[in-house]
Amino acid sequence: MYPLHRLWRSLVALAALVACFGLPTWAHAGDTWPATIDIGIQKGDPLVALRASGELEKAFAPYGVAVKWKEFVYGAPLVEAINTGDVDVGAVGSTPPILAQAGAAPGVVYVAFAPPLQKSYGLIVPANSPVRRIEDLKGRKIAFAKGSQGHLFVLKALADAGVPASAVQFVYLSYSDARAAFERGFIDAWAVPDPRYADTELATGARTILSIGQLSVPQYGFYIGSREFARRYPAALRLLFDVLDRQTALELAHPAQTAEFLSQNTGVRLEIWSRALPRLEWGVHYPLTDEVIRAQQDSADLAYRERVIPRRIDVREIIVDIR
Length: 323
Known about the structure:
Blueprint: H1 4-19, E1 36-41, H2 46-53, H3 55-60, E2 66-71, H4 75-84, E3 89-92, H5 95-104, E4 108-116, E5 121-125, E6 141-144, H6 149-161, E7 169-172, H7 175-184, E8 189-193, H8 196-204, E9 207-211, E10 220-226, H9 227-232, H10 234-253, H11 255-266, H12 270-276, H13 290-305
Parallel strand pairs: 1-2, 1-3, 6-7, 6-8
Antiparallel strand pairs: 3-10, 4-10, 5-8, 5-9
Helix pairs in contact: 1-10, 2-10, 4-5, 8-12, 11-12
């Protein structure tokens, strides 16, 4: 089995060789560079593996850019950190940028997107639960982190099933609190992403009644950044995404090695990563396509109808093309 760290080195060497024959695809004449790029990460996003590899630091070194990593439990705090200037870029689900645009963090913009989520986010119930489908949740408690991807996942699942939000009880909990409540029977269902999703399945035998990819409208992951950083340093974002794209392709092509590598570098057990990794929709593309924009606008409209946000928004207004 070819060691993952050697494969990473091979890719970096190849990129250097290509660079010898001209500007790489992300580089433009006259590019300017920040002294530091602050990157927000969450467990389960591909930036976690990129941090562990150390390859981004090597890529930025010739430009005098230092890389700093800051970890967040879920998307809403990451958005706030971007808005206040503590973080320059990070990966989130569909909900946080919608909340940001509606008023909580107006300085946040979309800069890239990830493939639509399929099986990496699940709505789960205890193994012995009588709940088999969304309609069975009427009158029951559903937990998720407020403002997270799980928030709109649950709202869209209910809408698709014709169940009004008023027919269920929402319980806003952090991931650690939701896990405890789930195990003790204090909640009936929980919207949770990998790797916490895989961890809960393995530990409790939880059943999935709906995967996020089963919703009627695709739910994409997004890379968001501060408007000012995207305006001043698009080359830094292009380089980040170029390295991330190559690393992600490598990691997904070698899941066993990647799971072991992540286990060693994150403290999350190997069996959890082995279960979660095949479900993770890693990748990065820019700029946002019309298809992605339509799907995200649908989510924004749903958020307004369900009074998650106070006003209608047009997601196109906060998209930045970094090419």
